[in-house]
Amino acid sequence: MRKSILLCFIFLFSGLGLRAQQVQQYAQYMVNPYVINPAVGGTEDFTDVKASYRAQWTGLEGAPRTIYFSGHGSLGREFNQYHRKNESNKWHGVGGYAFSDKAGAIERNAIYGSYAYNLPLRRKLRLSVGLFLGLKQFRVDTDMFEDLTNGSDPQLTGGVKSKVIPDLALGGWLYDERFFVGFSVFQLLHNKVNLEGATEDDGRLQPHYFLSGGLRIPINEDWNFVPSIIAKAVRPAPISVDYNLKIDYMDTYYAGVSYRSRDAFGLLVGTVLFRRVEVSYSYEFTVASVRHFNDGSHELIVGYRFGHPKCVKCPSRFW
Questions:
Q1: Strand residue runs (E) in 208-289
Q2: FRET partner for 300 with CA separation of 20 to 30 A, picked from 105, 154, 271, 285?
């Protein structure tokens, strides 16, 4: 029975057999928006490096486990001792992003480089456009299906099957010290992944669309509220929306709550030590029917800020 639940879980949520959610789930978009939008690369006043581990639906056999590493910074940007200068200048953002996502018998690994071009639209208002370009690997351990089929279906047996394909994502990020709006599209190449004899339609990766936005609402000089929203769309699944509220104290301590439509509630806490080391943790408890089979989801991010620790007015303080 447990294997039957596992196999149903794999087919429902992996995205290889069904044209549904094919991009890994994260909770802390508000801590690291770069992982959903390459245009964020180079927007900070420092080089931002982060690593994350996510355990989704703990207690459920074969539940997703995701690890990622990311880093980005700017080129051609000038700073002085206290803050950035020459805000009318254009600059470039470069970075990289790699992840490993495993759910049951199915594993996805990818590595990307990113480039962004950041330009002023008016005083303090800037637009960044960027891309991720890289390789994505899909691996399926078909022996995990063997007990269910008793070896009767050769498409579901035969050991590990793997395929590597190119991948492309594009994004735009409009921002100043009061708000941000972002839009990005992943899996733009619409490549075919046919590891299990899927049809032409079933084996293709579907583009994933992300639309995000947020406001900074000052309470006083030290405290800020940051409400934000992220909508995710992929055919034929229904649109998913994350509603977030974060409260920040001097870019040193922050906490937040979130709700993902028809899915989960989340809690977030984090801190930035010595203006350089960032640690954040979130816990999500599921409200969907799968809640009866799991103990919630945990996500941890650890980051380090290289470069200009005296600069305190970069977007990370406000978002």
A1: 208-215, 217-218, 223-233, 240-249, 253-260, 264-273, 277-286
A2: 105
Query: What span, in angstroms and rounded, lies between the C-alpha atoms of 35 and 29?
Result: 8
Contact 231, 240 (CB under 8 A): yes
User: What CATH number corresponds to the domain at position 113?
Assistant: 2.40.160.40
Beta-carbon neighbour count of residue 201 at 10 Å?
A: 8
Q: What gap in Å lies between CA 30 and CA 81, rounded to an integer?
A: 28
Which domain range does residue 269 map to? 2-318
| Total domains present in the chain | 1
Q: Say if CB 115 and CB 41 are below 8 A apart.
A: yes
Asked if residues 167 and 185 have their Cβ atoms less than 8 Å apart, the reply is no
Q: Residue 176 to residues 92, 121, 122: CA-CA distances in angstroms?
A: 17, 10, 10
230 residue type, one letter: I
Closest CA to 143 of 128, 134, 153, 135: 153
Helix (H, G, I), strand (E, B) or coil at 311: coil
**CA–CA distance, 22 with 248 (Å, rounded to integer):** 32
Query: Contacts from 166-170 at CB under 8 Å and sequence distance 24+?
Result: 166/133, 166/134, 166/135, 166/136, 166/191, 167/110, 167/112, 167/132, 167/133, 167/134, 167/135, 167/136, 167/191, 168/131, 168/132, 168/133, 169/38, 169/112, 169/131, 169/132, 170/38, 170/129, 170/130, 170/131
CA distance 32 to 280: 10
Global confidence as pTM: 0.85
* Tens-place pLDDT, residues 89-110: 899 999 999 999 998 888 999 9
User: What would the pLDDT profile of 266-278 be if each residue is shown by its tens digit?
Assistant: 999 999 998 899 9
Closest by Cα among 145, 161, 146 to 194: 161
> DSSP letter at 149?
H
252: left (phi > 0), else alpha (psi -120 to 50), else beta?
alpha
Within a 13 Å sphere around the CA of 167, how many CA atoms are in the beta-carbon half? Answer: 30
